[in-house]
Design the sequence.
């Protein structure tokens, strides 16, 4: 089943001599449960694409459909709610709230959405991610890898259909990066979630089922793995 589709997506910044075609006619589809890596040199449009996929920014032209809903047809309010329920974001700099402990950080998105926290599910998730002993720790007492795992748990807490990750292992060493992505892969398989992950790390990209390469805002080539 197709969970994500992008059709003739363009994102232009500036105008005339300052015009930047950050995305220049990108089309792609992703099936439910797929793990896709997006690679490409700096400035090739990776983050711009991820932002469009998550409805964090509006395209100049083109359509993005996530779980059967076209993002461009939604109001900001609808989008906010849709994002909270369907999409989990993981960014490079974790974005944990410093005054909340690990558990509170993880359940916050569910609580913000007015949902009931599924205690058993969250506990299982934290156990899978090796965070059980850190439930009440504050973020500043955690290592980078631990903070990243908390950010992953938070992204998964609402059981989103899609996980969008922008260089989630950018601050981690190579062994920790592979562990963290391995865990993400395991948890996403358990819940049939789809992952779209930007990475500069070739080893991490190889862990994906498919690699999409962006160059100058265009899709350059696709490789199948697995
Ligand atoms: N808000 C903006 N205003 C103007 N130009 C922008 C804006 N955001 C991105 N760009 C430009 O769009 C292009 C693509 O940027 P993007 O952030 O998507 O690259 P990237 O592939 O994620 O790069 P990196 O690997 O360095 O993170 C770049 O040329 C960038 O300068
Ligand atoms: Mg980027």
Sequence:
């Amino acid at each position: 089943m197709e969970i994500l589709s992008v059709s003739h997506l363009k994102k232009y910044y500036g105008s005339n001599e300052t015009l930047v075609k950050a995305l220049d006619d990108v089309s792609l589809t992703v099936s439910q449960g797929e793990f896709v890596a997006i690679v490409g040199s700096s400035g090739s449009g990776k983050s711009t694409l991820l932002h469009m996929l998550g409805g964090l920014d509006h395209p100049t032209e083109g359509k993005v459909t996530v779980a059967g809903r076209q993002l461009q047809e939604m109001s900001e309010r609808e989008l906010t709610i849709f994002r909270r329920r369907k999409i989990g974001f993981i960014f490079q700099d974790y974005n944990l709230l410093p005054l909340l402990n690990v558990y509170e950080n993880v359940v916050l998105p569910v609580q913000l959405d007015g949902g009931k926290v599924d205690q058993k599910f969250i506990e299982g998730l934290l156990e899978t991610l090796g965070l059980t002993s850190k439930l009440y720790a504050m973020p500043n007492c955690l290592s980078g890898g631990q903070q990243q795992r908390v950010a992953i748990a938070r992204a998964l807490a609402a059981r989103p259909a899609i996980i969008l990750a922008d260089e989630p292992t950018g601050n981690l060493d190579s062994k920790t990066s592979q562990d963290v992505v391995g865990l993400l892969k395991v948890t996403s398989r358990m819940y049939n979630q789809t992952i779209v992950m930007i990475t500069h790390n070739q080893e991490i990209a190889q862990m994906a089922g498919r690699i999409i390469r962006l160059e100058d805002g265009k899709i350059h080539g696709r490789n199948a793995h697995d």
About this structure: The mean pLDDT is 91. The first strand starts at residue 2 and ends at 13. The pocket of magnesium ion (ligand 2) is lined by residues 46-47 (CB under 6 Å).
